[in-house]
Design a protein that fits this description.
By secondary structure, the chain is mainly alpha-helical. It is 55% helix and 6% strand. The chain has a four-stranded parallel β-sheet, sandwiched between helices. Helix 11 crosses helix 12. The protein is elongated, with a radius of gyration of 33 Å. The protein starts with 19 loop residues before the first strand and ends in a 5-residue tail after the last helix.
Length: 351
Amino acid sequence: MNATSFEGAPDTSPDLIPGRIVLLTTSHRVAPGLLSWPAWQALRTADRVLCADGAHPQLPYLREAGIPVAEESPTAEELVDVCADGHTVVVVATGEGEPALTDGLARLAGTGRVRMPELELLPASYDLPGARLLDLVQVMDRIRAECPWSSRQTHQGLAKYGIEEAYELVEAIEDGDREELREELGDVLLQVVFHARIAEEDPDAPFSIDDVAAGIVAKLIHRHPHVFGDETASTPEEVKEHWLRTKAQEKRRTSVTEGIPLHQPGLALAAKLASRVRTAGLEVPLPKTEGVGYELLALAMRAEAEGVDPEAALRATARAYRDAIRETESRGQETESGGQRTDSDTAGTGD
């Protein structure tokens, strides 16, 4: 807005009521027009509504509701003058906010020479939980279209990264590092969104991230009848029973081994097989064959029966062994370093 846009506006003076400035913020992750009731009240009762962005997504909906919006960008001084004598001005903030305006208002207030209007920040819409996932989908869409590396990736080419990220997530959990956990969860989530974006381009059976989300939502609701239906469950065991029963109805499997990924680590695979056998109430004796593999299988089955994850147990033991290795190496380096100092000390003594 130029200076003439507010010609005729009353000058600020001690005798005038200072008025009110409302900075209205909205979320681009919420559909335009879905504003809070306080926001609509502020818009309808304002003396003027201003917006610096003529293409702001809220403007068509505000005008449809009968609220006149001027496409203007006043300075802080001009805005204070307009608010004099008790006027209320609502500024519909752009996506970047209004840093120049807010900084100018703060500067004016800091001088102590201007009678400032009441300043109010009014969020007109809030992000719903999970709204930032929309940002991730948009960013992934652009990367897929414009990045020379990402645009050429396939499900097969990304498979190894999914395995790596899953292991890094497990490591963060076992380390108890909260910051690392948050980051690794993001990396795993990226794999999901990336694969879903690639899947959109399949010529024969395309699907999107919305299809992925819809599928898991339907599955969760169906497998939790004690939450979303009429059944009841008061213990974890009853919940697991519901889950297994509904899962069996969905999959219509002919063997308890169906659906077990055979490419997972050996101990995890053995424990999963043992779990399925135990849950199904089957009596399946171990093969009476000698060898390390059969011994490990027996240990994995014993761990599963005792409620121990054999993979996690072995990782914990391996980490302890790694620490022991480093401690031994450290002692060896100290000994070697000490020996070198002794040689240096005796050098030149004639011994």
